[in-house]
Amino acid sequence: MWTRPLSEVPSRDLRPLLEEESRYWSEELLWDFSEVSAAVANGLDRRTLTGRVLQDGPRSLAYCYYMMDTGRAIVGSLFAGSSFRGQGLEEALVDAVIADAQGRPGNERVECQTLFSTAQDADRRFQRAGFASRPRRYLVRDLGKPLDVPGHERPLRPLRRDDLAAAARIVHSSHQGSLDAALNLTYATVTSCRAFVETLVLRSGCGRFDPEASWIVDGAGVILASHLSATNGHICQVSVTPEAQSRGLGAVLVTSALGAFRRQGLRTASLSVTVDNTRAYALYTRLGFATRRVFAAHAWVRPPAKIELPA
Predict the structure, then answer these.
(1) Which domains does the chain have, with CATH numbers?
(2) For the chain, which has fewer Cβ within 10 Å, the N-terminal or C-terminal residue?
């Protein structure tokens, strides 16, 4: 067995593993992963995908990739075939990918959320490599359960394309000084939040965007929703400005999205949350979401810089 750079591997060598991965995340997370797998295969064929694959002869056993974004590396899937999990192979692979990303010239930051990882010890490997880390949860709600939509004094309206700049400002405002912003550079500026919002809405960056379940309250709150599969709706982002928090607006936004999912005939809804974001975590559990998968968010910056996590 040995690891090879993904840039040397044609997609045909990885195709059986990618097909197994799509089936796995469909069952585990109710997430149609076929578009992500197709993008990975396309990156392999164009020789633009960075990362490593563990091979035994011509057979690919596990792989892990990362993407570059202006001096930042974002580690994506870490997936091993079912017969090769729990043997330390994935951990060795993630160690190699972390070393590659940290050692890449011009790269000053590495981030990862281990939602798409089959390695049992992945989170500890990031921590051992000097990453700041916090636990997260992937939550799922059965849409067949009763749903009460609370009232609110400020009107919701469907999110339109010309609302994207306003949505980005709300997302940025809600994350200033937050734990999530410290671990994810996406929330650092209004410009980066605008790019994030456009990716979700215009480029299906987290499933197929759902305009019927995405709402905005002018100057106060926004929720962006998508479909991860034919039966599962996903809340990609919910943000409320500091001035509008603690007034029930978050509950109104989330339940409004859930109601739209139900009207469309979806069976479940999902979202992810940082456990230390206690108000959001408590809201989601109160609204009937339950933990389906435990993972973590990790971030590293090149010394002497340091990630400062809020207390």
Answers:
(1) 2-130 (3.40.630.30), 141-293 (3.40.630.30)
(2) C
